[in-house]
Amino acid sequence: MQALAQGLADAGIAVRWETVRRPEALRYAPLRGGYITKLIAGYDWLEQELDVSDPVHVGHIALATCLDWLEFRELPDFRDGRPRLSAWFDGFRDRPSMRATPLSGETHD
């Protein structure tokens, strides 16, 4: 789970580079599309395989913080057609630790 969260974060950062961070003349749309495909595949896998009955572990924390960042940066929507993943994330985001550390402003990614 932690490795998948890292892969999603890496793909999300790459999408941002190919969308807003890299100078426009140097952006490569097929590369951006490939990273979006990876995000969607990860989301779809999570929708099917995420065991919501597992006790909380570091993989869940990594996944929740990654999904929170992806949503904060308005990257491809993990919620679209994924009710299980969305419900899990909403429940996790209600944890005191997540509420105490909201994302805001500009970040360096």
Would you mind describing this structure in some detail?
The protein is built from 5 helices and no strands. It has helices spanning 2-21, 29-49, 58-72, 83-93, 96-99. Helix content is 65%, strand content 0%. By secondary structure, the protein is an all-alpha fold. It has a single domain (2-99), classed as Glutathione S-transferase Yfyf (Class Pi), Chain A, domain 2 (Up-down Bundle).
Task: Please name the CATH topology.
Answer: Glutathione S-transferase Yfyf (Class Pi), Chain A, domain 2
Number of domains: 1
Number of strands: 0
Mean pLDDT: 94
Can you tell me the overall shape?
A: globular
- Give the uncertain stretches in residue-range form: none
Termini, distance in Å? 21 Å
Any idea what the CATH architecture is?
Up-down Bundle
